[in-house]
Amino acid sequence: LPKNWPAQIPYLTGPLYSPRLTAAHLAAIRTRPLPPAETDTDIVVGTFEIPRGLKPGPSAAVRITPITDPSHPAHGQCGLFAVRDLKPGELVVPYFGEVHVGSGPDAISEGEDEHAASDYDLWLDRDGNVAVDAARAGNEARFINDYRGVPVSSGASSYSSSRPAEGLGGLTRARPNAEFRAVWDPRLCQCRGEMTMAVFVLPAGKKKRQRKDGTQGGIAKGEEVLVSYGKGFWGE
């Protein structure tokens, strides 16, 4: 198990499948999307791929670390920190959890939905009505925090992407340094492949950030990996 992994949470090295998933749900996530046209500049879901040679188990790129800074929104909890420099666009870690029916007529009513109140639930395939929830089981990715309110002192502090903190007497992160992507994982489904979620460093061309040494992007060794949970999570 990774260091600082909670004893009460099962550690996953691959997806855990809900018994409510139908053959149609599984087909949706086991059909690889067509590659984009050469003229298409948008990122197409599923066109990024987990390296086939990536070994399952604890990540060598990040570590789970308790948050001891009282000004951090997740003080008393844990965050995910880089153990080496991570390049722009680089895979950080897959996001594993329970793959389940998202919503609608295929799911039980919202009042009984065991995933409705989860803070770890992400859409895997909206059209296929499939989501993945790491609340009750997962891997290191479940410890990634939102960037809002995180002090610049949380890990490397050499970025100019900061703003005054409200009532904290310091600077907080102005933007995330990583993002969730739905990707194709050729290691899953007995090596036939399957859609999964993963965390990637923001690419250099997306919300570029300037380091004091003049370089752009990436996540420095010792820096906390931070994503945006989205305004919906915060009720904005």
UniProtKB/TrEMBL annotation:
Gene3D superfamilies: SET domain (2.170.270.10). SUPFAM superfamilies: SET domain. InterPro entries: SET_dom_sf. This is SET domain-containing protein. The lineage of its organism: Eukaryota, Fungi, Dikarya, Ascomycota, Pezizomycotina.
